[in-house]
Amino acid sequence: MDPLIRAEVVIGENTKQLLVERNVTLAIAAIKVRNITATIRDLTTDVIADKVVIQGVLHKQIFFVGEDNIVHHQAEDIPFSTFVDVPGAEPGMNVQVSPVIETVIFNLLTPTIVHQKVVIEFFVKVTETRQLNLVTGDGPLVRVDQVVGENTRQELFENFITLETPALKIDDITVKVKDITTHVIEDKVIIQGVIHKQIFYVGANNIEYHQGEDIEFSTFVDIPGASPGMDVVVNSTVEFVHFDLREPRHLLQKVVVEFFAKVTESIQVNVQLGPGALLKLETVTGENTKQILVENVFTLPLHTVKIREIIASIRDLTTEVIEDKVIIQGILHKQIFFIAEDNLEHHQAEDIPFSTFVDIPGATPGMNVRIDSRIETILFELENSTTLRQKVVIEFFIKVTETQQLSVVIVAPYGPYYF
């Protein structure tokens, strides 16, 4: 069966170079400029018709030798903006931008003025998320998101609010959904978040006022086949906003929000290369599993009769790909619940940094890493009333992929992207 997947269809890509030229005045007189390093910060993009607008900050660090023969440092931030032509691009599409500092040229014009030229190259790729049936074959092994199911649900949120100032009329109420979190359970997706409202109203003194309101919510969407551990994408749309000023300070509000949830599962398939759709895919370089033992002795703050429970979780997990290996670092967070000699239950937290590596032949710096971690076993022994020995086994599953652009065979028809 040809799997139904959620993939990024490549709309187009392009490259552009930008010259940023500027004179900077040094804080003190200089004999020579030793070096200038440049980086790109705060990069933002906006997709418009057939173009991608790029904005950001060019951050420079200027190292120069002063008349005192000491090396000094001066920083400079230069905002910039440019655009790249990408035929077929439309608002709402996805964009990936890779900036590279090509050249930094500088010249000390006077003891306090440095002339600088920086060439930045931008590589821009525009994609659109689509669902399509992929034809499997004997081509490269890729990691894709197979669609398990999707569904829509509308919710009515109704409440009264007391205005801070008596109102003559309500001018407007703007609503947006923020801080959305999701949790996949059996055949359902639980959605939680905040309905953020801004109420604009005219007071009894004919002055317009503003009042904000946050309403927490929780709902769910039925998706048969969904199970814990699967991935989910949720989009929310404010469909309708109604308000009724019952009294000068008593406002009734009704908000209808539509939630669209799509559940996917990561799978590996061999694709069939050929005419079809040009997709941005992750080809699988390799994967591996590793278990580590984190053992330590902890001194309890009180004399203890027994340990009731220890709960462990992994936090701040980071990875770095080097040649044929993936380095893993993180923190093992533990919560220790124990009964002290006063027969009361106490709690003590502990954080233990750890690091390890996993062999992945073929891995190279710059590749993508997908990591899953789980606590396998927690063992503990109270050696005496204040000394606790703990052993925690953690299992890591690592998959290394490389982002590539492949033309693959799909099941026809496929809209405007079937060719």
Radius of gyration: 29 Å
Secondary structure: number of strands = 18
Helix count, per DSSP?
A: 0
Spell out the helices and strands N to C. Answer: EEEEEEEEEEEEEEEEEE
- The CA-CA distance between the termini, in Å, is 22 Å
The average pLDDT score comes to 94
Q: How much helicity do the residues have?
A: under 10%
Q: Assign the structural class, choosing from mainly alpha, mainly beta, alpha/beta, alpha+beta, or little secondary structure.
A: mainly beta
Low-confidence stretches: 415-419
Major sheet characteristics = 9 strands, antiparallel
The geometry reads as: globular
Q: How many domains is the backbone divided into?
A: 3
Q: How much β-strand is present in the residues?
A: over 45%
Structure notes:
The protein is mostly beta strands. The protein folds into three domains: about 10-125, no CATH class; about 145-265, no CATH class; about 280-405, no CATH class. About 0% of the residues lie in helices and about 80% in strands. The protein has no helices and 18 strands. The protein has strands at about 5-25, 30-50, 50-65, 70-85, 95-110, 115-135, 135-160, 165-185, 190-205, 210-220, 230-245, 250-270, 275-300, 305-320, 325-340, 345-360, 370-380, 385-410. The strands form four sheets. Strands 1, 5, 6, 7, 11, 12, 13, 17 and 18 form a nine-stranded antiparallel β-sheet that branches. The chain has a three-stranded antiparallel β-sheet with strand order 2-3-4, with no helix packed on it. A hairpin with a 4-residue loop joins strand 3 (about 50-65) and strand 4 (about 70-85). It is globular, with a radius of gyration of 29 Å. The two termini are about 20 Å apart.
